[in-house]
Design goal:
The longest helix is centred in the N-terminal third of the chain and has 20 residues. The protein contains 14 helices and 5 strands. It is mostly helical. The strands form 2 sheets. Strands 3-5-4 form a 3-stranded mixed beta sheet, sandwiched between helices. Strands 1-2 form a two-stranded antiparallel sheet. β1 and β2 form a beta hairpin.
Length: 298
């Protein structure tokens, strides 16, 4: 009888935790078991953000900072996570990268900003990183590595962190910088393109952005090498994005890219000039680009 009672209690507790912890982790209906409360997710992200901003050279240009945050907040408004506050910030560094932290912190490097072509590209990058937060990708990794009890025990208060807190933040930083699994990257790409379109930009920019990154890569894996990579190749990322774009509302393909505004707010300020940036063949402010290119991507 005691064994039956204990088993019943255990089953009830498991079902309770499952019911309380299952949350939607994408705009496409996926749900995941997340047992770390939002308050602790935000605390972990805030502690990591404080360390990163102490060690990094943050961009001082108020126009660039304000513009990136404005684009980011438009993404945040449609991402479906209204339980946290999003922060979009710029790090001054030549690195071609962007990353996000649990709880709503997104960072993009000026090195990457210099190579993007338009506002829609920026929206996709910020949307991709927002997708990692919506998907709780870092939190799900930490749950597996450290377990629920340890993560809940972290206080993360003040400047003096305990050794285990320092270790957790170091591992978190490695996760977000080194990158996620292929599945998680595909998910973040799909969400980034979806958020871009839903927020009012042309989601074809997602394909353009990956093409830009691909052109900047010195090493392009293929064949056997690819099998041992955690990240999907850019070719597979583009194919994944093209499949998703075909499922989006067709009206999104007529939405703008806003290249001129991006030149004015970012490129001219970072480069000191804008004349060497090629203008789009199609109108950028009012209606998108060459419909043939949009048709290929979609």
């Amino acid at each position: 009888m005691k064994r039956i009672y204990a088993a019943a209690v255990g089953l009830t507790l498991t079902l309770f935790l499952f019911a309380c912890g299952v949350v939607q982790t994408s705009p496409f209906g996926e749900r995941s078991l997340i047992l770390i409360p939002t308050s602790q997710e935000v605390a972990i992200g805030r502690a990591a953000a404080l360390q990163i901003e102490r060690r990094s050279k943050m961009c001082k240009d108020p126009v660039i900072n304000g513009y990136v945050n404005w684009v980011g907040q438009r993404i945040a408004a449609v991402c479906g996570r209204h339980d946290i506050k999003f922060h979009y910030k710029v790090i001054e560094s030549p690195e071609l990268n962007a990353f996000s932290l649990p709880g709503g912190w997104v960072y993009i490097y000026t090195g990457l900003l210099k190579h993007l072509k338009d506002e829609a590209d920026l929206a996709f990058v910020l949307g991709h990183e927002t997708g990692h937060i919506v998907g709780r990708h870092a939190i799900r990794r930490l749950q597996l590595i450290y377990g629920i009890n340890l993560l809940l025990s972290l206080t993360l208060g003040g400047k003096n962190l305990s050794p285990i807190e320092e270790e957790v933040l170091k591992v978190l930083y490695q996760i977000v910088i080194a990158g996620y699994s292929r599945k998680e990257e595909f998910e973040a790409d799909a969400m980034g393109a979806y958020f871009t379109g839903k927020a009012g930009w042309n989601p074809v920019a997602s394909v353009e952005t990956i093409q830009i990154l691909d052109s900047l890569m010195k090493f392009k894996p293929s064949g056997v090498t690819e099998l041992f990579m955690d990240h999907p190749t850019n070719k597979k990322r583009i194919a994944n994005l093209e499949r998703w774009i075909r499922t989006f509302p067709k009206s999104w393909l007529r939405q703008p890219f806003n290249a001129e505004r991006y030149r004015e707010k970012v490129l001219r300020r970072l480069n000191g000039k804008g004349g060497d940036i090629k203008r789009r063949q199609a109108s950028t402010e009012g209606g998108g680009r060459n419909p043939r290119s949009a048709g290929r991507a979609a």
